[in-house]
Amino acid sequence: MIVMRSVSIIGVGTTNFGILEGMTIKKLASSACNRAILDAKLDRGNIQAFFLGNYIGGILEGQETLAPIVACEIGLQKNVACTKVEGACCSAGIALRQGYLLIASGVYDFVLVGGVEKMSGASTAKNTEALAAGMDKDMEGYTGLTFPGYFGLVANRHMYEYGTTIEQIGMVSVKNRKNAVKNPRARFRKEVTLEEVLHSRLVTDPLKLFDCCPIADGAAAAVLCPTEMARSFSDKPIEILGSGHGLGHSTSYAMEGPSCTATVFAAKEAFQMAKIQPSDVDVAEIHDCFTIAEIVDSEDIGFFERGKGGPAVEEGLTQVNGRIPINTSGGLLSKGHPVGATGLGQVYEIVRQLRGEHENQVQNAEIGLAMNLGASGLVSTVTILRGVH
Amino acid sequence: MQTTLQNIGVDKCGQCGKLFISPAYVCGACGSEEFRTEQIPGRGTIYTHTTIRVAPEAFRDQVPYPMAVVELAHGLRLTARMVLKKEETMEIGHAVGCLRQDEAGYWFGIL
């Protein structure tokens, strides 16, 4: 990919993630986007385009066409191009990438990107059904398989191929819940023990309740501009060094081992653009919708060799003070997973790390990575960010 | 198992012969939109498995229900509902056979 100019994040905003009673989907998105604009200290009249990620707002809230609706609420100009972006749980990662590409290519100078979901108004069964809309209905949607079920399939295959243990998988939850204790944006801020994880009720074998992220309401947003202009707005602009977007499999039976090719390709693309290696990354937020997903992601990105993701968790390599700290925010497992917002929620956390402002600050963190996965391994984005000290 | 195993009708590309789990609309290999049905034996092995205990609304009355990704001959794989007898458990590599096909797709049992 030819990148014509460097792009930076000059502002970020978020709501808390959790059960936010009284907050409509429009209010969530408007609030996060407004906070990002205020953080950027940018006159909102300068924004030229707006991409908003959302996945199941149509099904759960009966609200579509969110991007222009939110744009009107937050006072964007009438010449702003507003687009809703959907790629299941990867919607916000894709929204960010669209904004990035249009600035990198010189079409726009100032783009607002956001993501939002409102889930707490619906039952677990209704949420499960809505999320399943991201499966291929013609091939698999009618079988009764679910997204959690897909990750149960992945977990059993990972354990079979590499000897990954159920304890190693459970330790992801213990680590992430511990990280969330200090994060005021997280839904769950209480630690869990490995015994509690292992003895929680089965959801989809071998995954148990504490292996699964909770639903949440939430929104997150960022303002982007060319790096050459970024210093006029922010003391601590965060440069986007690399951006990848890959395609995986549309059915669970097409998986190529316990892996996601979408992430493999997205990571490869992002690392090539950034001209760095996975070992150069100081801190990462990766898609832990289920405990096993974090292990698979960490191998797909290249932080660990195939089959070494489980032992890495056990050895503490992914702890805040480990070799590659993963999900210092508490991850989706603790923050909750407002599906259309998650990708930018991750970027929000990485930006705080690279500004040196995170509750679980990784010392001297300069390079950060955010990886956002959509559906059952169908789509993935990887964003590599650099802070300037 | 005494039950007669069902064949599985797969879609064979009319141009290049590539096999797909049905329904296939476009052959991504050669671009053809013509397919004919070919019967292949409904036998395979478990590639991986899970048991769904939290289900979408339409399946709530069926939980818990076991499911597997089955690898058939020719290397084709499909997602199947499993029918397990009381003492049976699923293991990767178990030989399985197709018992029937209905609106929930393919139903397999352990051989």
Note down, in words, how this protein is organized.
The complex is a heterodimer of chains A (389) and B (111). Chain A is α/β, with parallel strands linked by helices and 389 residues long. Chain A has two domains: 7-123 and 216-238, 3-Layer(aba) Sandwich (Peroxisomal Thiolase, Chain A, domain 1), CATH 3.40.47; 138-211 and 241-387, Thiolase/Chalcone synthase (Peroxisomal Thiolase, Chain A, domain 1, 3-Layer(aba) Sandwich), CATH 3.40.47.10. Chain A is 36% helix and 18% strand. Chain A has 14 helices and eleven strands. Chain A has helices spanning 25-40, 57-61, 66-73, 91-104, 124-131, 147-162, 166-180, 194-198, 227-230, 261-274, 291-301, 309-314, 331-335, 342-354, and strands at residues 7-14, 49-53, 81-85, 111-117, 202-204, 207-208, 218-226, 238-247, 283-286, 367-374, 379-387. In chain A, strands 3-2-4-7-1-8-11-10-9 form a nine-stranded mixed β-sheet, with helices on both faces. In chain A, a hairpin with a 4-residue loop joins strand 10 (367-374) and strand 11. In chain A, helix 1 crosses helix 3 and helix 7 (166-180) crosses helix 11. Chain A is globular, with a radius of gyration of 19 Å. The model of chain A has no long low-confidence stretch (mean pLDDT 97). Chain B has no helices and eight strands. Chain B has a single domain (7-110), classed as Beta Barrel (OB fold (Dihydrolipoamide Acetyltransferase, E2P)), CATH 2.40.50. In chain B, the strands form two sheets. Chain B has a five-stranded mixed barrel. A three-stranded antiparallel β-sheet of chain B has the order 2-1-3, with no helix packed on it. The termini of chain B are close together. By secondary structure, chain B is an all-beta fold. In chain B, strand 7 (95-102) and strand 8 form a beta hairpin. Chains A and B meet through helix 5, helix 6 and strand 5 of A and strand 4, strand 5 and strand 6 of B.
